[in-house]
Amino acid sequence: QIELQESGPGLIKPSETLSLTCTVSGDSIRGSNYYWGWLRQPPGMPLEWVGSVSSSGSTYYTPSLDSRLIISLDTSRNQFSLKLTSVSAADTAIYYCARVRGANWFDTWGQGTLVTVSS
Amino acid sequence: DIHMTQSPSTLSASVGDRVTITCRASQSVDRWVAWYQQKPGKAPKLLMHDASDVEGGVPSRFSGGGSGTQLTLTINSLQPDDFAIYYCQQYSSYPWTFGQGTKVDIK
Hints:
heterodimer, A: mainly beta, 7-stranded mixed β-sheet, 4-stranded antiparallel β-sheet, 0% helix, 53% strand, globular, B: mainly beta, 11 strands
């Protein structure tokens, strides 16, 4: 059974770079037919798609974050990661990693990790 | 971006009720919509994709319909486990976008 687990800092200062990792178990991201994605949800707010990466490394980002965002794969560790530069309070959210089926919908989610941007 | 608007924002219902949540898109999304259920403190759970293709393990009381700019999620005979927030998501065109959510609570 596939499981995803996010890891990263719970607190980060404004202007710093946020780095999160999603470790996948129970499935191999190498050569997979699935995409792998990141989403976020500010407390009490709706979900926002952040970006996705295919098993071949092609990336798709939401335009509002495109200039600050990098999503990448580490197939040797069966992980994928998110780097978001120049964070501000507006980036405070629960960040979820997810498996993306059909490149389109999110069929398996991590438990989420709360990231707070504050000095 | 395609804007997804859900109605109602909050729905108060009783166990056994039939409830319908509507998701309206700012432009046609055909049937390229998924629905999720989210409970407090938990990650969302996929209920269905392609408007009406229900995931394995999801109770048969959940159904989806519609196409174009109006999609619906219906729960027949609401159960205590169904009180949650429901989100629609379009994947007709990037960026993928979600509705603002519909909270189903106990009347």
